[in-house]
Amino acid sequence: AIEVITSQTKRIQIRDEDTGELKEMKVNVWNPTIANLSLMALGSSAPEILLSCIETINTLGKEPGELGPSTIVGSAAFNLLVISAVSVMSVETGTIKKIDDVGVFAVTTIASFFAYIWLYIILAVSSKDEIQLWEAILTLMFFFILLACSYTADRINAYKKKKEEKEQESQQKTQKITAQEFYHILNIEKEKSKLKKQGGKIDTEADKEQMNLSEAMKQAFGTDDPSKIDQKEIDKLAQSESHKILPRLQFRRAVGKALAGKKQVFVLKGGKVEDLGPDKKRSPMCGFACLKYSVIENEGKVIVEVVKARRDAEFQVGIRTIQGTATADEDYISIDMELMFKAEDQYKTIPITIIDDEEVEDDEDFEVELYDLQTKERLEGDDTLCTVTIIDDDKPGNVGFEKRMVTVSEAEKLAQLKVLRHDGACGEVTVDYKTVTADTGEAAVPHEDYEPVEGTLVFKPHEIEKVIPIKILPKNDLNREEIFKVELSNPKLGGLTKRTTCIVEIVTSDQLQNTVNRIEKMLKLAEEEKATSWGSQFKAAIMLSAQVDEDGNVDEVTGGEATIHFLSIGWKVLFACVPPARMGGGWPAFFVALSFIGMITAIVGEIAALFGCVMGLPDPITAITFVALGTSLPDTFASKQAAEEGETADAAIGNVTGSNSVNVFLGLGLP
Question: What phi and psi, each to the nearest 5 degrees, are found at residue 590?
C-alpha cells in the first residue's frame, strides 16, 4: 500500500532557464524524506505504537501498563545496536557506502537522542512518574516538527546539489589563469597606468584586447586601480605562500570574445624587466617590457613591447628576430627593422606575424633582440633580448567508440559501430581494431554468431567519424542474447578516449521480439487484474500451487512450504480481507492493514504478558527482550536489504534514527 501511495505522480509546468519556455514534467507527489518518516516509519513502527496505544486504552482508570512503553525503549536499543551492526556487516568487504543526505541524517539522529532525553525529562523532572496532558500534546507535536525540519534539510541539500551543478557548468565555461600570468599581466597593467599618467598614448591593439582584471585585482589587493597597488605588495604576493590563492581566481578572458569573435591575442608570462636580479644589467637606452612571451599558433600575431629607459632622449635602434626551434617564414614572419624613439615616446609595440599551419608539432620558440644600427651588435643589457614561444594548437585528437554498448537485432544482419575523433582533427590518425570473444557465459561464437573482423581505421585530416561494419549471422533463436567485444588499440599520432571497448549484444529479431512483447504485456495485464481483484486475493490465500518466477521457470511446491501453508491458512484468509493495494490509491489497504496489525498486536501483548508471568519475568524485562525483538525484526531485514542493494547508507541507517524518533513521538504521544 505504501508503495502505491508514494509512487503517485502529478504533472507540473516549469520554465526552462535557457529558453524561457514552459515545459511540462512529471514529479512525485510525495517527498521521499517525508514518505520515509511518516508512512514508512509509521508502517514499520506500527506494532510498538499500537501495542502502547492498546495497553493504555485497556488500563484507563487503572495503573498504566509497562509492556507498551518498555517495548518502545527496548526496540530503540535493538535498532541502534543490532540493526546498525547488521547493516554494517551486510556491506561487502572493501565497499564504502556513505550518507548522502547528511542534513536529514543529522536531524533524525539528533531527534532520536532528544526523544529519549525528553522521555526522561517528562517522567523524572517536570512531573515525576506522571505524564500530563500538555506534555503528551507537546510530545506528539515533536513528530510534526521533526517532519518540518527533515523536509527543510532535504530541500537545503537539494539546493546545494543544484548550486554545485551550476558552479561546475560555470567552471567548465570559465578559463583559469595561472598565478604567473596574473602576476605579470598585473605588472603590465600597472606599468601602463603609470605611462598614462605621464601622458603616454595607449592605442595599440594589444591594449584594446587586454583582459579585464578588475574582479581579480579587487579580490587580491582590495582595489582595481593598478596605480594604487605597491610593487612590493605584488612581489610579496607572487613570492610568498599566499600566491597559492591566485590560481583559484577564476574569471573569463575577454580577449577577442568582445571583438568580432577573435581569440586570445597573447599570453604574457615569464620575467619582467623589474624582475632582473642584482647581477643582471639593464640597457641604458631601451629594453623589452617582458622577457618571455607565448602565443597560440592560431592567434595570428604576437605583440612585443619595447620601453624607453631615457625619458626625453631621441634615438634609433634596430629590432630583429633570431631563428630558434621555430623556423623563420614557416612558423613566423621574420622582421628586421628600425625603431625611432622621439622625445615624447615612452614605448613602442611591434607586431610579429605567426603562421598557422595544420602540422602537429611540439611548441617552438624564437628570439627577438634590439641592436645597434651602426655596429649591428646587440645592445648592452639583459633586457635587450626576449623569447617568444609558439604554442601548437594543431591537435590530432583522441579516438574512441561513440557508445560503450550497442544492441543489434539479427534481422539487421550488420552491426555498424561508430568511432569518433574528439578534441582535434589535424593530421592523419590511425587506430587498430579487432573483435574479441567476451568472458561471459553468454559469449557469442565467432563464425557462428558473427563474422570476426580486424583492421585499421585511417582518419584523414579533418575526418572525425568512421564506421566498423560487422556481419551478424542468423540463428532464429527466440531467446537469443549473445555478446562480443570490439577493441581499439595502437593509435598513431593521436590518442584514445576512455571508450576503447564496445560491447555488442545480439538479440532476437524485431518480429519475434514484438510477438514476445505482446504476450508479456497480456500476461502483465492479467497479473494486474489479479492484483486489483479482491476475489483473487482469497484464491491466492487458499490455493497451493506451483509458482512461475520472473524468468518463466516453474517453482514446484516443497514439503516444507506445504506444511507452513496449511498452518498459516487461517491468517492468510483473514488478511485477504485487506483491500487490494491498488484500490483507492492504496489508502484503504494502508489503514485496514494497520487495524489488522493492531488486532494482532493486542493478541501478542496478552501472550507476552502470560509468557512473562509463567517465566516469572516482570513486564519491562519481557518487553525489552522478546517483544522488542519481534517488533524490530521487520526493520532489521529492511535495513539489511537496503545496505546490500542501496548505493548509499541513507536508507539503512536512516531507517534506524527515523524509526526511533517516531516510536517516542507517536508511540508515547498518542497514548
Answer: -60, -50
- DSSP secondary structure string, 357-405? -------EEEEEEEE-TTT-PBPSSTTSEEEEEEEP-----EEEES-SE
Tell me which of 400 and 669 has the higher pLDDT: 400
Grid cell of 165 as nine digits: 551543478
Q: How much helix, strand and coil, in percent to the nearest 5, is found in the chain? A: 45, 20, 35
507 contacts 410 by C-beta, under 8 angstroms: yes
Residue 642 has pLDDT above 60, yes or no: yes
The predicted-structure confidence for 326-364, as pLDDT tens digits, reads as follows 999 888 999 999 999 998 888 899 999 998 877 777 788
C-alpha span between 265 and 258 (Å, rounded): 12
Cβ burial of 319 (10 Å; 0-12, 13-18, 19+) is: buried
Task: Report which residue type is found at 610.
Answer: L
- Taking the mean position of all CA atoms in its chain, how far away is CA 260? 36
Render pLDDT for 589-628 as a digit per residue (tens, 0 to 9): 888 988 888 888 778 878 888 888 888 888 888 888 778 7
Q: What is d(CA 180, CA 445) in angstroms, rounded to the nearest whole number?
A: 58
Of 298, 292, 283, 285, which is closest to residue 339 (Cα–Cα)?
A: 285
φ/ψ of 313, rounded to 5, equals: -80, 155
3-state secondary structure 555-577: ECCCHHHHHHHHHHHHHHHHHCC
DSSP run (H or E) holding 114: helix 102-124
Residue 38, pLDDT > 90, answer no
- Which of 241-272 are b and which e, b meaning 16 or more Cβ less than 10 Å from the residue's Cβ? eebeebeebebebebeeeeeeeebbbbbbbbb
